[in-house]
């Protein structure tokens, strides 16, 4: 029994020593990376960030999956639009701890996420509780940012526009303001809805000097908005097995799934494709 006790103490001592050496090596590596970052004028920024994530800030990626049909549909769209620009949209439905901002990609990590659109405000006075944090993180990781207002069809358009403007401060390089309309009013006519939407757009456009992007579902656009916002950038949601979000309307952004699996996020998200190159997307942003 005495020999076994000595052996246990010796084993614990060896493990403790190894752990100290391991921690010391990590600290030395971190110092080397820091000096390399300073000494190279950020030339090795991406590689250093990669090694930092590997050794000091590991991210446990969950195994997410879709039905075979949805997986094939998403894969086909990504392949068909591989020369375009992909992004995603987020709100407080995604937890902050579930996102690894420096690792966002799709298509088996072959295609990087280049832009992110964030829910900022809702209705007359509500705001998304994650918007401020996500907004700064998107800028930090050099993603093109967009902010959208979720329009509540029975509420006041002036108060809703002011709610957005009070909570969102767009900068050069950000996407124009975005209006999300997808609900049918219960206490207003469809004509009054369109009139109110134009009031919201006019107030926001006067502030930023750019027409807002209109986001809606394909059938909602066809039934309520078509012909009323033809000179506005159009972002359509269509999750059907189709080659384009609309067979006969021009469009700028297509939200093609709400079940997107993005490497770097531990939950499914909406994935979007901009109908152009990254440089074309940059031309759409604010000056």
The CATH H-level superfamily of the largest domain is Glycosidases
Return the CATH class of the largest domain. Alpha Beta
Number of strands: 11
- Specify the oligomeric state: single chain
Roughly what percent helix?
40-55%
The mean pLDDT is 86
> What would CATH call the architecture of the largest domain?
Alpha-Beta Barrel
Notable characteristics:
287 residues; two-stranded antiparallel ribbon; 11 strands; 18% strand; single chain; disordered N terminus; alpha/beta; TIM Barrel; 2 domains
Structure, described:
Strand 6 (144-150), helix 5 (157-167) and strand 7 (178-180) form a beta-alpha-beta unit. It is built from eight helices and eleven strands. The chain folds into two domains: 2-55; 68-284, Alpha-Beta Barrel (TIM Barrel), CATH 3.20.20. The strands form two sheets. The chain has an eight-stranded mixed β-barrel, surrounded by five helices. Strands 2-3 form a two-stranded antiparallel ribbon. 41% of the residues lie in helices and 18% in strands. The chain is an alpha/beta fold.
SSE topology sketch:
Elements: H1 2-39, H2 45-55, H3 68-80, E1 85-90, E2 105-106, E3 111-112, E4 115-122, E5 126-127, H4 131-140, E6 144-150, H5 157-167, E7 178-180, H6 190-208, E8 213-217, H7 218-225, E9 234-237, E10 253-260, E11 269-274, H8 278-284
Parallel strand pairs: 1-4, 4-6, 6-7, 7-8, 8-9, 9-10
Antiparallel strand pairs: 1-11, 2-3, 4-5, 10-11
Helix pairs in contact: 1-2, 5-6
């Amino acid at each position: 029994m005495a020999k076994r006790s000595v052996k246990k103490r010796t084993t614990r001592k060896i493990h403790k020593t190894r752990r100290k050496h391991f921690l010391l090596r990590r600290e030395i590596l971190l110092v080397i990376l820091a000096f390399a970052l300073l000494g190279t004028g950020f030339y090795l920024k991406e590689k250093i960030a990669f090694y930092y994530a590997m050794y000091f800030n590991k991210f446990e990626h969950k195994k997410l999956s879709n039905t075979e049909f949805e997986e094939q549909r998403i894969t086909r769209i990504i392949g068909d639009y591989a020369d375009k620009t992909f992004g995603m949209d987020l709100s407080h439905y995604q937890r902050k701890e579930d996102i690894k901002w420096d690792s966002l990609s799709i298509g088996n990590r072959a295609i990087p996420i280049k832009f992110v659109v964030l829910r900022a405000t809702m209705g007359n006075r509500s705001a998304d509780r994650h918007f401020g944090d996500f907004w700064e993180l998107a800028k930090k990781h050099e993603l093109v940012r967009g902010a959208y207002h979720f329009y509540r069809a029975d509420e006041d358009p002036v108060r809703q526009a002011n709610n957005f403007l009070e909570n969102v401060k767009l900068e050069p390089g950000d996407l124009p303001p975005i209006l999300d309309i997808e609900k049918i009013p219960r206490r207003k006519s469809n004509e009054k809805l369109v009139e109110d939407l134009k009031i919201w757009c006019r107030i926001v456009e006067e502030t930023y000097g750019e027409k807002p992007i209109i986001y809606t579902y394909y059938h909602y656009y066809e039934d309520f908005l078509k012909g009323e916002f033809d000179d506005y950038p159009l972002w359509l949601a269509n999750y059907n097995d189709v080659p384009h979000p609309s067979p006969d309307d021009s469009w700028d952004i297509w939200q093609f799934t709400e079940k997107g699996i993005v490497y770097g996020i531990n939950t499914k998200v909406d994935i979007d494709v901009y109908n152009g190159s990254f440089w074309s997307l940059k031309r759409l942003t604010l000056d």
